[in-house]
Design a protein that fits this description.
alpha/beta, TIM Barrel, four-stranded parallel beta sheet, 4 helices
Length: 95
């Protein structure tokens, strides 16, 4: 078995945004979490943009894309609105 050779770490930052939103504050910052993950060696970031914006919000996506230089993967519903956002931001992958 080649364990470790092909393993890559993707960090999902949704719950960082969930805590921020529950607090009604600007922290913890999902962009900072993405940057810390990148600096720690993550191979990619995953963010779930929900239709109700309960976790990640639109501005988070734009800010994360601007801040990181590793792949950003979107988790999102298969709706026209989400498709438009994905096409506008061109993430590494969408699921």
């Amino acid at each position: 078995m080649n364990a470790g050779k092909n393993l890559r770490l993707g960090v999902n930052i949704d719950h960082v945004a969930t805590v921020r939103n529950a607090r009604g504050s600007s922290y913890p910052d999902p962009v900072r979490a993405a940057l810390i993950s990148q600096e720690a060696g993550a191979d990619g970031i995953t963010a779930h943009l929900r239709e109700d914006r309960r976790h990640i919000v639109d501005q988070d996506i734009a800010s994360i894309i601007e801040a990181i230089n590793i792949p950003l993967n979107f988790e999102m519903a298969a709706t026209d609105e989400m498709q438009k956002i994905a096409l506008n931001h061109t993430p590494h992958a969408v699921c």
